[in-house]
Amino acid sequence: MRIKTGVIFWNLVFFMMVTCVRGFIYTCGGTLKGRNGTVESPGFPYGYPNGANCTWVIVAEEGNRIQIVFQSFAVEEEYDFLSLYDGHPHPVNFRTRLTGFSIPPPVTSTGSVFSLRLTSDFAVSAHGFKLYHEELQISACGNPGVPPKGILVGTRFNVGDQIRYSCVTGYVLDGHPQLTCVTNAEKGAMWDFPVPICRDGEAGGACSGGVAVGVEVVPRARPMPWGRRGPM
């Protein structure tokens, strides 16, 4: 009787261990189609789960491209990541890996498929992310975004359209103030120059595009991640 009880006890312990290990992995995602839509990390904005492994595949009509624009982004820095793939989520299509608490600039695919994969560890979480995705026709460059402390003038982003950038008071523009949507034989429509950035005028150095007037130092507060959470 004692031996039988011991066997039952250890079988129960083994079952609980397997259940806990399985519980560490949180899967989500799917395939998204349509001219536009949104993607949110699970639990946004209250925090994504630990052990997340979520993949979203965005599919546009053949010949069109996909642009994603982040509206919010907070992922535990250097431990949790959002990986971007220019195509299906295979290593050959890997484009970049995002982490931290700064909103990334818009990203445009080169083809009709774009994928995202969220992975998180088993400890600290953060608010997560929210993004807007839009299907772009071959003649559209898409919204290139606005740099921190920057100002964008222009609301049309098709071939031939021009937009202008400037900075708020106290910051100077580093880069080309005017961008034009042009046609590239290999990549289709694209902007002729990268989006400029705005530098703190007090930092000095060679900056183009303006002169700092009434410089105001704006300290960057270090964002704090959410507290530790147990497995979900």
Topology, element by element:
Elements: H1 2-23, E1 26-33, E2 36-40, E3 52-59, E4 65-74, E5 81-85, E6 94-98, E7 107-108, E8 113-119, E9 128-136, E10 150-153, E11 162-167, E12 171-174, E13 178-184, E14 188-191, E15 197-200
Parallel strand pairs: 1-3
Antiparallel strand pairs: 2-9, 3-8, 4-7, 4-9, 5-6, 5-8, 10-11, 11-13, 12-15, 13-14
SS class: mainly beta
Number of domains: 2
**Average predicted local confidence, pLDDT:** 82
Main beta sheet? 5 strands, mixed
Total beta strand runs:
15
Tell me the name of the CATH class of the largest domain.
Mainly Beta
Radius of gyration: 23 Å
The second-level CATH architecture of the largest domain is Sandwich
Query: What portion of residues is helical?
Result: under 10%
Q: Give the CA-CA distance, first to last residue.
A: 37 Å
Give the full name of the CATH homologous superfamily of the largest domain.
Spermadhesin, CUB domain
Give the helices and strands as they follow along the chain. HEEEEEEEEEEEEEEE
Shape: globular
Total of helices: 1
* pLDDT < 50 stretches: 7-22, 205-232
Strand line-up of the largest beta sheet? 1-3-8-5-6
> What fraction of residues sit in β-strands?
35-45%
What would the CATH topology of the largest domain be? Jelly Rolls
Keywords: Disulfide bond, Membrane, Repeat, Signal, Sushi, Transmembrane, Transmembrane helix
Protein name: CUB and sushi domain-containing protein 3-like
Organism: Coregonus suidteri
InterPro entries: CUB_dom, SEZ6_CSMD_C4BPB_Regulators, Sperma_CUB_dom_sf, Sushi/SCR/CCP_sf, Sushi_SCR_CCP_dom
